[in-house]
Amino acid sequence: MVQGLIGALALRIPLAFIYTSLPGANLFYLGMATPTSSLVQTVICLLYFRRLKQKLRRRQIK
Length: 62
Known about the structure:
This protein is mainly α. The protein is about 85% helix and about 0% strand. The protein has one domain (about 1-60). The protein has 3 helices and no strands. The radius of gyration is 17 Å and the shape is rod-shaped.
């Protein structure tokens, strides 16, 4: 849920604005904000699961 908020508010909206500000921008560039945001959200989830996995390993060792 948090990664969704980060992706939508901190990435998708600003990226859409930046992409449309480029010279010669069209709807293709505007549409690229969504997959870029989804990619970043996936990376955030993978990093979180990796960290969680490491944390669980440390608890099992102790």
